[in-house]
Amino acid sequence: MAVTITFPESCLCSTERLTAAAKRWRFLRKLKRYDQMDFQFALWQMVHLIIGPRKVYRNFVSRKETKNQFARDDPAFLVLLAGFLCLSSGLITLVLGLGFLGFVKFFLWSVFVDCIATGLVVATVMWAITNQFFRADPALDVEWGYSFDIHLNGTFAFLVFIHILQPLFYYPVLNAWDFVGTFLSNTLYLLACTYYLYITFLGYSSVPFLKSTKRLLSVFPIMVLLYIVSLSVGWNISRTVMNFYHYRVM
């Protein structure tokens, strides 16, 4: 005679939490095992986040089908992002003349404040919003780790504009005290924010049980309005940000 065993809801929730914790622990353990990280694939992701971000999210969907999770299970992308921040921090240090100690401070700020701390806040907010307002099936929810991955994807694309293009063209063009300098500076930030928004939208729209994700793009008109206002008042965003970078480490 077949016997059916049912588990209370509290037991099921505990199992889900343990599974999530086990996944996080497995991810953290791999940080010590460089031989198990796929740096080639992580580099492929970084390149395609700039030239074709849709391809990156197809991989996230495939991971859900094969490993039952959207979030990355390989920390190689995070390690390469830290390396990217090290190189870009060195570039900004040279442009601003911050010196070696300034470089160390700026790098630590970039990793632990700009990337990790901000990422924890943004990922948590987006995780809460999407699970509260965008789920088509209440029985399914977005993984917090996936929200954090989406933020990291958008952050990398954003930093290509702000940590690479901005310092390279800061003194020749962006810092000029005329409309052209302000226009190019603020346009660079509009492009960077648009890329972040688009990659974020692609990330959540790739989740099959989320609905109406196009509402995330409603932020874009606000960004354009702020861009127009900044040009109208002559506010050079690059100059403000680079001065802030200099101030916070000196």
Automatic annotation (TrEMBL):
Membrane topology: Multi-pass membrane protein
Keyword line: Membrane, Transmembrane, Transmembrane helix
Leader sequence residues: none
Record keyword Transmembrane present: yes
UniProt keyword Transmembrane, yes or no: yes
InterPro entries: UNC-50
Transmembrane segments: 77-100, 106-129, 150-171, 183-204, 216-237
GO CC field: Golgi membrane
Localization annotation: Membrane
Matching Pfam families: UNC-50 (PF05216)
Predominant place of localization: membrane
PANTHER family: PROTEIN UNC-50 HOMOLOG
The family this protein is said to belong to: Belongs to the unc-50 family.
Name assigned to this protein: Protein unc-50-like protein A
